[in-house]
Write a structure and sequence with these properties.
alpha/beta; Urease, subunit C, domain 1; TIM Barrel; 2 domains; 20 helices; 17 strands; globular
C-alpha cells in the first residue's frame, strides 16, 4: 500500500470544541499502511521523508471524511417515477417504481457521495427480494459495490414484520380496499415478506462473511416502531446485546407516526423503546422529527444518538426536527441524506448547508446551528453511529486515513475575507467541484477529480442501458397498483391526527413565547 504526505494550507483535525485549536496552518498528514502516522506542520513532516507521494499543497484543505449516516438507494425515487409526497403516500406510490440492478444502482450514489467528500455510508437496505437467499444475494451486491468503489460501509437490512402498507395490520387495511386491488396487494406483500427469524439468519451470515473486511460492518436496523412487532423488538434487543452491535431505527419521522405510537403504547414511542432496552449508546434514531421535550431528555440521558435527515424532512413534508434542543442537551446528532438531498442527489456539502440554514429560527435571540456544529455532525458524530466510531471522524495518529483534500481556491476565489474561519468556509461554500482527492483507509478513491478505483463512466453507461428498455409487464402492473392505492392510503389517514397531542416541538415553544 502506498504511503502519502498530504499537505494543506489548513489541516482540520476535527470541529473545534470551545477554544480548542483543531486547525493546523500549513499542516500535513503522514499516511502509512492506511493509518494516520503523524499530523503536524508540513515543514516538520516533509523533510523526514518516508512516503511515496505528496498530495496537496498551499491551495488545499485537508479534513476528515464525511459520514452519510442514513442512506437507502442509488437512483432517487423521483428518478424512478415517485414524486415527492407526504411520507405515508410516498411509500405507497414507491411500490410502482422500477427496480434497477442493485450493484450498479449502489455505485451511482456512491460516486456522488465520494465526490462530495463522503468516505463512510450507513446503508439501510429496505427492499426484500423474495427468500432469505435472495435477500442475501441482494445484500452482497450492495456491499460488493462499496468494496469495489472503496467506500467504507455499515450495512443493515431493515427489519419489518407488520403494518407494511399503513399504520395498521395488513389484513385490516386490505379489507378496506376493492377486492381486486386487495388481491393484487396481498400477492405483492407475500412476495416482499420474510419470516422474522430470517432477518437474523441474514444478519448472522453477513456478519461472518465480512468479519475480516476492515471497511465493511453489519448493523441491525429495526425499520420503525410501526413496522416492528413487540416480538421483533425483543429479538433485536437480544441480538444487539449478544453481538454488541449498533442499531439504527427510523422513529417519529411524521406526526402520523407519533399518533400511531400514542395509539399503540398509550404514550411516547421513545419511552416505549427505552422500557424494552432499545435506547443507549448503541442506538441511533433516524429523523426524531416529532420528539417531545421529555423524549429528548430520555434520549440524552441514555446516550442515544439521532440522525437528522434535513432534506428528506422537507421534501416529504415531515416537519422540522428540533435540532437545537437536541444539541443543547448534548445529544450527538449525525447527518443523513436519506434517499436524496434537496437537489435530488447525494451532495453532502449541500446537505451541510441545508442543516445550517434550516434551523435559523426567527428573532435576534436564541441559538442557531454554527458551522462547527454542522461539521462535527457530519464527521465525529456521524462516525459514532457506526461500528467505526473509534477509527474515523477526526484526524488523529492511529486512526484510519479517511481523508478529504479540497482546493482552497474553490472556497476563496476571487475573494474571501481573511478573518473567515476555515470550517465556516467549507460549510458555507464547499462544492463537489472543489473536492480533489478522497482517501479511505489510505487508498485513493478519488484522485485529482477522477474516480481511481472503477470506470465511473462505464458503470453509469451500463446502468443507463439496463433501464433503457420499457418496463416489464409486472413493472407496469405494479405502477398501476400504486396509483390506485394512493387515494385509499390517503383516506385511511383522514382524521388520524384528530384529538391527539401531536404538536411539533417548535410550535409549542413559539406558543409559549
Amino acid at each position: 500500500m502506498s504511503s502519502y504526505l498530504i499537505k494543506g494550507r489548513h489541516v482540520i483535525r476535527g470541529a473545534p470544541h470551545g477554544d480548542e485549536a483543531r486547525v493546523i496552518a500549513d499542516g500535513a498528514v503522514l499516511v502509512r499502511e492506511g493509518v494516520i502516522a503523524a499530523v503536524g506542520k508540513a515543514e516538520t513532516l516533509e523533510p523526514a521523508g518516508g512516503f511515496d507521494r505528496v498530495l496537496g499543497g498551499a491551495d488545499h484543505v485537508v479534513f476528515p471524511g464525511f459520514v452519510n449516516s442514513h442512506h437507502h438507494v442509488g437512483l432517487t425515487p423521483f428518478q424512478l417515477g415517485s414524486p415527492d409526497l407526504p411520507l405515508e403516500l410516498w411509500i405507497a406510490r414507491r411500490i410502482g417504481g422500477r427496480v434497477p440492478d442493485l450493484y450498479l444502482d449502489t455505485l451511482y450514489s456512491g460516486f456522488e457521495m465520494v465526490r462530495s467528500g463522503v468516505t463512510c455510508v450507513q446503508h439501510l437496505h429496505g427492499r426484500v427480494l423474495g427468500s432469505v437467499e435472495d435477500a442475501h444475494r441482494g445484500a452482497k451486491m450492495v456491499i460488493q459495490a462499496y468494496q469495489d468503489l472503496g467506500l467504507r460501509v455499515s450495512y443493515s437490512f431493515a427489519i419489518r414484520d407488520q403494518n407494511r402498507l399503513v399504520y395498521a395490520a395488513d389484513e385490516e387495511f386490505l379489507a378496506r380496499l376493492p377486492a381486486d386491488l386487495a388481491g393484487e396487494l396481498r400477492a405483492y406483500l407475500a412476495s416482499q415478506t420474510l419470516p422474522l427469524e430470517d432477518y437474523f439468519v441474514l444478519f448472522e451470515g453477513l456478519t461472518r462473511e465480512f468479519a475480516d473486511d476492515d471497511r465493511v460492518a453489519i448493523q441491525l436496523a429495526p425499520a420503525n416502531l410501526h413496522w416492528c412487532s413487540d416480538a421483533a423488538l425483543e429479538r433485536i434487543v437480544d441480538v444487539m446485546r449478544e453481538s454488541n452491535v449498533p442499531i439504527h431505527m427510523h422513529l417519529l419521522e411524521t406526526p402520523y407516526q407519533k399518533a400511531y405510537a400514542l395509539r399503540r403504547t398509550g404514550g411516547s414511542a421513545v419511552r416505549y423503546l427505552g422500557e424494552r432496552g432499545l435506547l443507549g449508546p448503541l442506538a441511533t434514531l433516524g429523523h426524531g422529527t416529532w420528539t417531545s421535550e421529555d423524549d429528548l431528555d430520555e434520549i440524552a440521558e441514555t446516550g442515544t444518538r439521532i440522525c437528522h435527515n434535513c432534506s428528506s424532512n422537507m421534501r416529504l413534508r415531515s416537519g422540522t426536527a428540533p435540532l437545537i434542543p437536541m444539541l443543547e442537551r448534548g445529544i450527538e446528532v449525525a447527518i443523513g441524506i436519506d434517499e436524496a438531498g434537496i437537489n435530488d442527489d447525494r451532495d453532502m456539502l449541500q446537505e451541510l448547508r441545508m442543516v445550517l440554514e434550516a434551523h435559523r429560527v426567527t428573532g435576534h435571540d436564541g441559538r442557531v446551528p454554527t458551522p462547527e456544529d454542522v461539521f462535527r455532525m457530519a464527521t465525529e458524530f456521524g462516525a459514532r453511529t457506526t461500528p467505526f466510531g473509534d477509527r474515523i471522524g477526526v484526524i488523529e495518529e492511529g486512526r484510519s486515513a479517511d481523508l478529504v483534500l479540497s482546493r482552497w481556491s474553490q472556497f476563496a476565489f476571487p475573494y474571501l475575507d481573511p478573518d473567515t474561519g476555515v470550517v465556516d468556509a467549507i460549510v458555507h461554500r464547499g462544492k463537489p467541484a472543489g473536492v480533489e482527492s478522497v482517501l479511505v483507509a489510505g487508498e485513493l478513491v478519488l484522485d485529482e477529480g477522477r474516480i481511481a478505483t472503477l470506470d465511473e463512466q462505464g458503470a453509469l453507461t451500463e446502468l443507463a442501458q439496463s433501464l433503457s428498455g420499457p418496463a416489464t409487464d409486472d413493472g407496469c402492473r405494479l405502477r398501476e397498483i400504486a396509483k390506485r392505492l394512493v387515494p385509499h392510503v390517503s383516506a385511511f389517514y383522514a382524521g388520524y391526527l384528530d384529538d391527539l397531542d401531536v404538536e411539533p416541538y417548535y410550535a409549542r415553544q413559539s406558543a409559549r413565547r
